[in-house]
């Protein structure tokens, strides 16, 4: 069974204020682009921020990751 790359992708995206495409993530982390895309699709904290068009090829999604806040603490029972 292969190890999930979610953590590595998450750390990278959170460090990049402007986001990255799947191709850029793939090159930076040396992970197959298909694996990057699959991981991004399964990460609830990753989202497409915008689309960019390079000289060749179709539009590419620029991905970002948000920090998910902690759950609100349960109030104490005062009664």
Total helix count?
Answer: 3
CATH architectural designation: Orthogonal Bundle
CATH class, please?
Mainly Alpha
**Looking across the biggest beta sheet, what order are the strands in?**
1-2
The largest β sheet comes out as: 2 strands, antiparallel
Uncertain residue ranges:
none
Separation, N- and C-terminal Cα atoms: 51 Å
Coarse structural class: alpha+beta
Helix content: 25-40%
The fraction of residues in strands falls at 15-25%
Task: Count the domains.
Answer: 1
Question: Radius of gyration in whole Å, from Cα?
Answer: 16 Å
- Principal-axes geometry comes out as elongated
CATH topology, what is it called?
Arc Repressor Mutant, subunit A
Q: Find the count of extended strands (DSSP E, 2+ residues).
A: 2
Element-by-element helix/strand order = HHHEE
What's the pLDDT, averaged over the residues? 91
Protein model, in words:
With 79 residues, this protein is an alpha+beta fold. The chain has a single domain (6-65), classed as Orthogonal Bundle (Arc Repressor Mutant, subunit A). 34% of the residues lie in helices and 19% in strands. The protein has three helices and two strands. It has helices at 6-15, 22-29, 33-41; strands at 46-53, 59-65. A two-stranded antiparallel sheet has the order 1-2. Helix 2 crosses helix 3 (33-41). The chain is elongated, with a radius of gyration of 16 Å. The N and C termini lie far apart (51 Å). The mean pLDDT is 91.
Jot down its keywords:
79 residues; alpha+beta; Arc Repressor Mutant, subunit A; two-stranded antiparallel ribbon; 3 helices; 2 strands; 19% strand; elongated
